[in-house]
Amino acid sequence: MKRNFKYGAASTVFIVVFLAVLIAVNLIVGLIGERANLLFDMTMDKRSSVSDTTYQILDSLEKEVKIYTFASPETLDQWFSTDFPIRFGMMPVNGFSLSEYMQKYALYSDKVEIEQLDFDADPTLREKYGLTSQSDIVVECGDRSKVVTFYDLFKVDANDNDAMYITGLSVEQMLTNAISYVVRDVGTKKHAYTVNHNENVGAEYINLLEIAGYESQTLDLMTGDIPEDVTYITVNTPAADFSQDEIKKLQLWLDRGDTTLAIYLYAGVEGLTNLSSFLADIGIGVTSGITNVVVDQSQYVGEASAIITDYGTTQYTENLSDEVHLIMPWATPLELKETHDYKVSPVLYSAETSLLNDKSANGPFVLVAEAKKNATATGNSSKSKVIVSTASMAIGDSYLSGAGINNAQFTLNCLNTGEDAPELTHIGTISFADNYLRMSYNEMRIFSYLFVYIIPVGLLACGLAVFIRRKHR
């Protein structure tokens, strides 16, 4: 009896000690997890992961940044993952917690603090930050702040019936860019894009302008002058020519100094006589027409494209990743020459394997060029410049938001002008759509031969060999 009691007591003590140790370990791991964010992202598209780019930006923070929310974490997650997607007829966003994702920023950097404010108790918040909803998020540093709405956090598209639907997440992109924006010492810059020539400026391009610190507005050169505070102008895919008066306004604006004019052209557009003459005067000759489209036969992307793999070392390409390409659809060659007032230089070449669509000439070809106006020509100490690209489709929404290509980063580099401009890194969105495997033409041929000929013939030969061997046994 005493022996059974002794063993029973020992077992009880062992179980109690074991459970105590287990609880203690669980509490310690929980505390460490809260501090170090020991969470593993098991989602296929890594939607809950924070990129190394964001961590680098957080490491470089020297100022205190506050992220304000106006609802409890549980409510915020409910709105984000379920209520908002249902508005678009979508299934709930699984495997993602908005509150936990934001907390990763604060856990990683002691410069970031997240605070919940009472939206209803303090009505001045709406006016102070320009809030439109209790779901808005405010990122603030000193006197600079930026509002991120739920609409900003989702990548939304429209189908053929104009019905909106969610295709991905832009949470990291918007939060990290907001932090980069509010910690800058420079003020907001002014950008304008021309209208009334059938131009087209997409939402992704506007988003890159915001990342670069620009506020955008339309510019009608037919009826008005260029505002004094505009330092960057975009002319994108004009289908109609500019008048001589409009060209004169652009020339006078460039004479101010410290201005940048970016012109993106499309190969299929003809009749831009005045605009082409203006570019020729500054040393950039533009060719047009489908026969002059540059094609890279060593790659395949489903359309006539020049795929850039060798970026060179210009200020627009030095931070581009060599692991991914830059795609320039329907680009045509530029012809460069020096002029008295402008120094012209190539920015981007096509590959040596490229050739014109009619096979009349082989590459490499200049696809993007820069013309810097001499300081003595402007009468100012600062220079102005003109950036010309013949692949306007390269800054379309599909290419700027596409995963695995450098188009967004290259375009952002072109927007981030000036000797004291900070280096800006583009952070892509997480797409819910299927990711298609891109491969070169030669890779396609290898896979075709392998699966259409080699493997079937090999299996047939093995089958025949086994059949003949068994038959002669």
Describe this structure in words.
The chain is flat, with a radius of gyration of 29 Å. The chain folds into four domains: 1-36; 52-158, Glutaredoxin (3-Layer(aba) Sandwich), CATH 3.40.30.10; 187-421, Rossmann fold (3-Layer(aba) Sandwich); 448-473. Helix content is 36%, strand content 21%. The protein has helices at residues 2-36, 52-59, 73-87, 98-108, 124-129, 150-153, 171-182, 203-211, 244-254, 273-281, 375-378, 397-400, 407-415, 441-471; strands at 65-69, 112-116, 137-141, 144-148, 154-158, 164-169, 189-194, 214-219, 230-236, 260-264, 284-286, 294-296, 305-308, 326-329, 334-336, 342-349, 354-356, 366-373, 384-389, 430-431. 33% of the residues are buried. The strands form six sheets. It has a seven-stranded mixed β-sheet. A four-stranded mixed β-sheet has the order 2-1-3-4. With 473 residues, it is of the alpha/beta class.
Question: What descriptors fit this protein?
Answer:
473 residues; single chain; 4 domains; Glutaredoxin; Rossmann fold; 36% helix; 21% strand; 14 helices; 7-stranded mixed sheet; 4-stranded mixed sheet; alpha/beta; flat
Instruction: Supply the CATH superfamily name of the largest domain.
Output: Class I glutamine amidotransferase (GATase) domain
- Helix percent reads 25-40%
N- and C-termini, Cα separation: 75 Å
Overall 3D form? flat
How much of the sequence lies in strands comes to 15-25%
Please state the average pLDDT score: 82
Strand elements, count: 20
CATH architecture of the largest domain: 3-Layer(aba) Sandwich
The CATH topology name of the largest domain reads Rossmann fold
> Rg, please?
29 Å
CATH class wording of the largest domain: Alpha Beta
Report the major sheet: 7 strands, mixed
Could you name the ranges where pLDDT drops below 50 across 5 or more consecutive residues?
32-36, 434-438
